[in-house]
Design a protein that fits this description.
The chain folds into two domains: 7-212, 2-enoyl-CoA Hydratase, Chain A, domain 1, CATH 3.90.226.10; 214-263, Lyase 2-enoyl-coa Hydratase, Chain  A, domain 2 (Orthogonal Bundle). Helix content is 49%, strand content 14%. The protein has helices spanning 31-47, 69-72, 83-106, 122-128, 144-147, 156-159, 166-175, 181-187, 197-213, 216-231, 234-248, 251-263; strands at 7-12, 15-20, 52-56, 111-115, 118-120, 132-136, 140-142, 179-180, 192-194. The radius of gyration is 20 Å and the shape is globular.
């Protein structure tokens, strides 16, 4: 894997572990972060044997969210000139930021996030785009943008209502208040809460190992169908499921599963083909 400024990457036993590595800066999401994250996840999908991604962090906080320097750089967001052109440019910047986090949904691998301390602003946008969320007892979440005088614009307001009750989302968005790990679990935002980060990471890695042990074709089919069903009607989703199954289902992996059960062994599934660029 490439070297990154904002995180480290380790791939062991089909599990890609992406770790935010700027604890002194509270793992804020600076310009490099927004550029590197989609490249990193696409690279894992395209050029490794990983079957699941775990995202964790270092230091006291998972991430303090957006580094406001992203918006104070005149090369990124011009502060003078024609108002219409300035507005069009800002819209493009926001769309690029949104796209950086949408990659968590778009890659075919499940993405699990392990959260300690603060998960603030843009960091909440990020974990909402993940497949599963796990937290330590000291974790807390906040839609910080409201308190700063702006509307959250990178995904929380669009994804969080699909994860927890819309009325609760409205309260959290309008007030910008903190909610802790216990409340997040009660609301259904996080799957499990653990006493400390070490325990959390150990348990999340066990879950990742269970995912990696399954047929990667079956798992990617689950992610594709769940994401599609979230955004479409039941009937449309059933129709898409039938089409997917007719094209993707093959008995090979099922036979490997049956044979492994019969011999009390672990099935050995083939990896998915790499996702290579069209032209190299």
């Amino acid at each position: 894997m490439s070297d990154y400024q904002c995180f480290t990457v380790e791939i062991i036993d089909h599990i890609a572990h992406v770790t935010f590595s700027r604890p002194e800066q509270l793992n804020t999401m600076n310009k490099a972060f927004w550029l590197e994250l989609p490249l990193c996840l696409r690279d894992i999908e395209a050029s490794s044997n990983a079957r699941v991604v775990v995202i964790s962090s270092t230091g006291k906080h998972f991430s303090a969210g957006m580094d406001l320097a992203v918006f104070s750089d005149p090369k990124t967001v011009p502060m003078t000139g024609d108002p219409g052109r300035m507005a069009e440019n800002l819209r493009r910047v926001v769309l690029q930021l949104q796209s950086s986090l949408s990659v968590l949904e778009e890659i075919r691998l499940p993405v699990l996030t392990a959260i300690q301390g603060g998960c603030i602003g843009g960091a909440l946008d990020l974990v909402c785009a993940a497949d599963c969320r796990y937290a330590t007892e000291d974790a807390y979440f906040t839609i910080k943008e409201t308190e700063l005088g702006m509307t959250a614009d990178v995904g929380t307001l669009q994804r969080l209502p699909k994860l927890i009750a819309p009325g609760v989302v409205r309260e959290l968005a309008y007030t910008g208040r903190k909610f802790d790990a216990a409340e997040a679990q009660q609301l259904g935002l996080v799957n499990q809460v653990f006493a400390d980060q070490e325990t959390m990471l150990a348990e999340v890695m066990k879950i990742a190992a269970q995912i990696a042990a399954n047929s990667p074709l079956a798992v990617t089919g689950c992610k594709e169908m769940l994401n599609y069903s979230r955004d479409h009607s039941v009937q449309d989703s059933l129709t898409y499921m039938a089409t997917w199954q007719s094209g993707m289902f093959r008995p090979t992996d099922m036979m490997k599963s049956f044979q492994a059960k019969a011999t009390k062994s672990s099935p050995e599934y083939d990896d998915l083909f790499d996702v290579k660029p069209l032209f190299e």
